[in-house]
Design goal:
This protein is of the alpha/beta class. It contains eleven helices and eight strands. The chain has an eight-stranded parallel beta barrel with strand order 1-2-3-4-5-6-7-8, surrounded by seven helices. α1 runs parallel beside α3, α4 runs parallel beside α5 and α7 packs parallel to α8. The radius of gyration is 17 Å and the shape is globular. It starts with a strand and ends with a helix. The chain binds the ligand O=c1ccn([C@@H]2O[C@H](COP(=O)(O)O)[C@@H](O)[C@H]2O)c(=O)[nH]1. The site of the ligand O=c1ccn([C@@H]2O[C@H](COP(=O)(O)O)[C@@H](O)[C@H]2O)c(=O)[nH]1 has 15 residues, from β8. It comes from Planotetraspora silvatica. One of its GO terms (molecular function) is orotidine-5'-phosphate decarboxylase activity. Catalyzes the decarboxylation of orotidine 5'-monophosphate (OMP) to uridine 5'-monophosphate (UMP).
């Protein structure tokens, strides 16, 4: 029996049955399943138990909270009761907001999203984030860790620089992961699973390259095997 790979499969499914089926297929191969806005807004808290299933796989709740500190604290407290292993907030919400989430959900790792991986350098410039994305990612990472975030979400292209900024103890989570030659779809700042891992990511978020496959279990197993080759 091999150790599950450090992959969070994004269960971005249109319905609960599909999400639970995908979770069942991938959990022998991966450490984590991720529930995002699509499922949570449709089904609410029940979705967590459904995808956790009998395997008890770690659940990552990707709600990307972004509001005033009092509101984020209340939201983090509410979902913290569901015991997700990880909950996301936007780092751009600022120190007080991140700290409020950390204090409100003490049994969940708060992961601050630096810059969405769907944004290109040109997109970022249009919203006032000029220059190389890595500079803003590092700045946001430092703010988030200073506010108590135990994890960060960043592009695999920026993960080495973010690691240099925050040190070895912070969990670095990278979406924007595509196997070589795969369609990047709406992702802009991407890398392969092997590169993300070798650049220092602790947990790779992968959705459609697995769930869009005819056999999600086999797709997850294939990427997990490729990652094992990198780490040996
Ligand atoms: O910067 C971010 C933050 C979160 N995500 C989420 O990750 C998955 C990626 O899915 P793919 O199908 O592999 O593109 C998705 O749930 C996003 O909401 C992100 O992509 N980028």
């Amino acid at each position: 029996m091999t150790t599950p790979a450090p992959i969070a499969v994004a269960l971005d499914a249109p319905d609960l049955e599909t999400a639970a089926r995908w979770a069942g297929l991938v959990t022998p191969h991966v450490s984590t399943v991720k529930v995002g806005l699509e499922l949570y807004l449709r089904y609410g808290p029940d979705v967590i138990a459904s995808v956790r299933g009998a395997s008890g796989v770690q659940v990552f709740l990707d709600l990307k909270l972004h509001d005033i500190p009092n509101t984020v604290a209340a939201a983090a407290r509410a979902v913290g009761r569901l015991k997700p292993a990880i909950l996301t907030v936007h780092a751009s919400g600022g120190s007080a907001m991140i700290q409020a989430a950390v204090e409100a959900a003490p049994n969940t790792q708060i992961a601050a999203v630096t810059l969405l991986t769907s944004l290109s350098e040109a997109d970022l410039a249009r919203i006032g984030i000029e220059g190389a994305p890595v500079d803003a990612a590092r700045r946001l990472a430092a703010i988030a860790v200073g506010a108590g975030a135990q994890a960060l979400v960043c592009s695999p292209r920026e993960v080495a620089a973010v690691r240099a900024e925050v040190g070895p103890d912070i969990m670095l989570i990278t979406p924007g992961v595509r196997p070589a030659g795969a369609d990047t779809q709406d992702q802009a700042r991407v890398a392969t699973p092997e590169d993300a891992l070798s650049q220092g990511a602790d947990l790779l978020v992968i959705g459609r390259p697995i769930t869009g496959s005819a056999d999600p279990g086999a797709a997850a197993a294939g990427i997990a095997a490729a990652l094992r080759r990198v780490s040996h």
